[in-house]
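#dry-run=false #mode=assembly
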Amino acid sequence: MSKVIVIGHKSPDTDSIAAAISYSNLKRELGMDAAAYRAGELNKESKFALDYFGVEAPEFIDHVEAGQQVILVDHNESKQCVDGIKDAEVIELVDHHRIGDFETASPIFILFCPVGCVNTIIYNLYKLNNVKPSRAMAGMMLSAIISDTVLFRSPTTTDKDREAVKELAELAGVNYEEYGMEMLKAGADISDYPAEKLAGNDTKEFESAGKVFTVGQISVMDVEPINAKKADIMAALEKNRAAHNYVASYLMVTNILTEDTYLWFTDGAKDVAEKAFNKNAEDNCVYLPKVMSRKKQVSPQLIKAYAE
Amino acid sequence: MSKVIVIGHKSPDTDSIAAAISYSNLKRELGMDAAAYRAGELNKESKFALDYFGVEAPEFIDHVEAGQQVILVDHNESKQCVDGIKDAEVIELVDHHRIGDFETASPIFILFCPVGCVNTIIYNLYKLNNVKPSRAMAGMMLSAIISDTVLFRSPTTTDKDREAVKELAELAGVNYEEYGMEMLKAGADISDYPAEKLAGNDTKEFESAGKVFTVGQISVMDVEPINAKKADIMAALEKNRAAHNYVASYLMVTNILTEDTYLWFTDGAKDVAEKAFNKNAEDNCVYLPKVMSRKKQVSPQLIKAYAE
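#status=ok
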């Protein structure tokens, strides 16, 4: 095992997988003995990108040892970290989310930028350090930015993300619109997933005023196949909520073509959901037009609603 | 009042004062309506630097209004922030300390580097943005780095601090060793301070495992005048500790010429102090040779000792 573990969040998306790969590669170029790991199963979209650019998947680990040196990418909240992080030594943190409950005993390098994708930040760190990414590294960073910004459709998209995509597409030698649509399609093809897996898809824990809740997300190009399984998915969502004693569990069913979200929630969360989004709920669901981003359009609103 | 307040910690040192000035200036150069403020009284060293480079002192404020946009420099722990910060909106954070209890609802720009002085980071942000600092701005950043690194004597000093000092001294048109020694002397001349003021000098609150304690620091070129007032200073330290119900209060009496520290503490803290530094205490004091840095050599050790 390398001296330093570079790792993204549990239930990793393409950004977390690619960030572990691209940032550990940059650190190695700069002389650090660092390697990429993952804290959960690969999704179809990440597999597509890894295959396309011929990159090996990061090794899976379910915990880190006490004292292990770790670099966190794409997350910082303890609830989203690989198990054991409390007794490990975090030596760097690069992220683009809100910051919550992250503490160190001594000063370390920390960089957060409010951009659509952490790989946009990492690509700029390559440039800052005059390290030219290989085709494979450029391809992984490109895939992550396309994924997180849903090909620039997400309101989290910034000019810096757009700029990075254009430069990275050139380095990776692909047409980013064609490649991006192909990759998003591969990721959205989840019709064969069982209800339990759909209910837990891309799920993150949040804490607000001592209450812990989860928000998952399914990105699709057609909501009908998911709607057809709603009863089973909701049962699985509630089962998982009860098992972990969460105050509620939410699931964003996001259509990346129509750019809207059906936010499903477990029983008992109606009042909070209605207050958070100022909408009427029906059938354990609020409809959120023009909402695609958990980070910007869903979790802050829920955190606020629970804190009030 | 400008739209955005740029502010350092309570009991500001030269780094916090200079960072508010230099970073607000950079943000203005980049188009933001930002201005420098301070959360406490100026010390003699900061006054010397401001006078020398003809820079106006930042305006004092004792609180920020709810909803006010704020950029924090040189600190992040809520106990060290200007009052009212909990209901203000922090939009950026640039620091070089440990991170503790800092949270946001949404992603913002955050940059921490483990360097000796936050102005080293800010100077690099000038360079990154191709903004050339004026003589006055270069002088303030230079003063801060000399202050925080005690002219490179502190173990917190990094190559980046040394590099920045050399470049900034050129921009400011001064010999940094001569200017630095003059500035440090001005700051160390605290013989006329009353005991209450010495006891509260450059004091920061810390929290560990629910226990709140303070660590202040007095930098001198001769410990005798301070030792002569020890009884009065200790009485004032204990009075302040009791008034705020701190678990303990510590005061570093640091000789910047001999590069060592006498760490004074209030009654009842002997066990923690001995454990933290693996030293025997006598007369409410542990002697710490080669220790000058609160951030690196004192507060992490105390935080750890309280958490055990």
